[in-house]
Design brief:
single chain, 97 residues, alpha+beta, two-stranded antiparallel ribbon, 2 strands
């Protein structure tokens, strides 16, 4: 992938900011997905009071993984799966600190 075609964006997930470089045409879809993730985390916070943020993030990842597993493969583009895997790795690293 040519890095000269990528743009930097900041994504906020569970009150943490992550800087990514993405294709400009993917920005809207990625931001929408991250909004869905953050909305789901808020739902879990409301439904399961007293848990810590890592629990909510884990619940959200489980929810997202099960949604992806039940979707036909053509609905989850490989590029998005790769980006989500990188984001998940960044989240894991950030939470390990």
């Amino acid at each position: 992938m040519a890095t000269e075609n990528l743009i930097p964006i900041n994504l906020v997930v569970a009150d943490r900011t992550f800087r990514l470089r993405i294709k400009p045409e993917e920005e809207q879809a990625i931001r929408q997905r991250m909004k869905e993730v953050n909305d789901r985390i808020v739902e879990f916070k409301t439904a399961f009071a007293g848990k810590d943020l890592q629990d909510y993030i884990s619940m959200c990842l489980i929810w997202y993984a099960t949604q992806s597993a039940t979707a036909p493969p053509e609905e989850v583009p490989e590029a998005l799966e790769n980006r989500l895997a990188r984001l998940e790795k960044e989240l894991d690293e950030a939470l390990a600190q």
